[in-house]
Each structure stands twice: as structure tokens, then as C-alpha cells.
User: What shape does this take?
Amino acid sequence: MDSGGFKTPVEDRYFEDYVPGSVHEFGMITIQEEGIIAFGKQFDPQIFHTDPEGAKSTIYGGLIASGWHTASLMMRECVRYYLPRVASLGSPGVDELRWNLPVRPGDILTVRMTILEATRSRSKPDRGIVESLFEVLNQDRKVAMSAKGVNFISCRSPKPSEPVS
Amino acid sequence: MDSGGFKTPVEDRYFEDYVPGSVHEFGMITIQEEGIIAFGKQFDPQIFHTDPEGAKSTIYGGLIASGWHTASLMMRECVRYYLPRVASLGSPGVDELRWNLPVRPGDILTVRMTILEATRSRSKPDRGIVESLFEVLNQDRKVAMSAKGVNFISCRSPKPSEPVS
Assistant: This one.
């Protein structure tokens, strides 16, 4: 499996592998009408997510993916390529989630993660906090969705080798 | 259908119906192990979302819903009870999305929306911008998830009756 631009595969990835300033691009999501409608019917039954004909007369001019569908597909790729397999300790949330461009049937999406900060916890030095810029790019290399997210990640070396912040 | 604490049903709801300071609570989501695993396998295949046995040895001590699953379920209830059926013009995004508490099998969730601001557009006075605090409450009335979101909504009266901001 592609290691998403990291030196270590997800199976052996820890806090120390998340280097601020590094950029990781991975995944290839081909989004199809069938998947857009299935997600829309289950979770976001607005006409522009569920009905290709009805969607034509909306402001979007056709079917688009629910923003939560795009976010969930991004998450899938992050689990495959970005987050550590055993060292992931979850996330408290995301900020500035933006749906910049509609995602339409046939779009091909990739995920680009930029590591903004990586800070070892002062109170629990066996783990750290990684802040990332998440971007979903379409086939035109335009940002269709973006967010800033925080992940808690276990350290490979429980004892820090340098002063902690 | 319950109108979610509004005077108007979703079919006849417009920007003017979103009154700052008003609180709307609606929906009842019973979240089950089967649904958590299905969503997890499709979009967030971390062990604490997909494997009830394996999840026991994680920091969560058992299966929990993907945060994106909780968000998507919240969206479903918002489409049913909160957003206008014909006047919804989409959303640019959300801020401060927080997963405050794990959501576990058997939890019963409701959605509470507080309208923070409602501003008629100056440049396009046929529509307005509604900012809401989204909260997902569990059966103990604790906030399991929260976010602040913005929705663009068409006005019932294209011409404002008072000075626009």
C-alpha cells in the first residue's frame, strides 16, 4: 500500500512521523451518481443529493454530493493512508470545514494533508497533538473541500528526547 | 410531521421563520451496533468503529460511532425538521465541529438547534444567512457533538420590509 508520502507505513507510524510543514497527498476517489444518491437518501435527503432530474432545477443545476459524504470519503482515505493504525487516539473535532465547490458524479478526488503543528503533550508525554490542514482536490486540482483537524497520536518513544512544549 | 418548534412546516419555511435566539429540538435517533459498523466499514474503518471485540482493548473500551456518522445522522434530522424544503440554498460549511462524548450502541440522540444570527443579504436581498449552533444530545441530555453552521435560505418576501444589514 502507498504510504502516503511518509517514511513509515501506517502500521508503524507514530507521533514522531508527523513533521510540521510536510505535505501528504494520497487516495483516489471516483464518485458516482449511485453512491451520491445512496448517501443522500440515507443521510441528507435534499433534492440536489437524491434526484438527478429534480436537481436540474435547483441552484446547483444537477446532482451534487452531500458535503458529509465528501467528508466521509475523505476520512476513509485518511484511515487508509494518513492516520496511524495502532497509535491513533481519536480526534476532538475539526474547524473551518468548508465545501468550496460542488462535487458531481464522475469527479475524481484526492486528499492532500498538510501538517501544521505537532506538539508533544506536556501532561501526557506518551502522546502528541497533530494539527493538519485537510484538503479534498478534484480532477482540476481545485479544492472542493477543506478543514483543519486535530488528532491525538501515541509517541513511538514514550520519553521525549528534547524539551517538551 | 413535527415542525421542530417552528410555526411553519418545512414545506412552507423561509428565511423569515428563522428567529435569532429561538431554540428548536427535534428528532430521535436510536443508534445501533449494526449501523455503526456499516458506516465504519464504508467510511471510517478504525477498529473502534468496526470491531466490537477489538474495540474493547482501545482507549474507548468498546464500539463507538464514527464522528462523521453522528454528523450525518444529525444532518438527516435537520433535513427532516429544520431546513426549509424549497428555500434551502445550501451551506458553505461549519465551524467548531466537536465530538465531545463517544456515541455508543443503544444511545438515543436528539438534535437541538439554536439560531444565533439571521441576516438578510445586502447584495442579494431575496435571501439570507442563518447561523445556528447544532448540538446532538444523548439520552442523558449531554452534548455528544456540536458545531456552528451557516445556511443560505431564500426569503418569503423578496423585498425586505425593514432596512437590511
In short: Chain B touches chain A through 33 residues (CB under 8 Å). DSSP finds four helices and five strands in chain B. Chain B has a mean pLDDT of 93. Residues 34 and 105 of chain B are 8 Å apart (CA to CA).
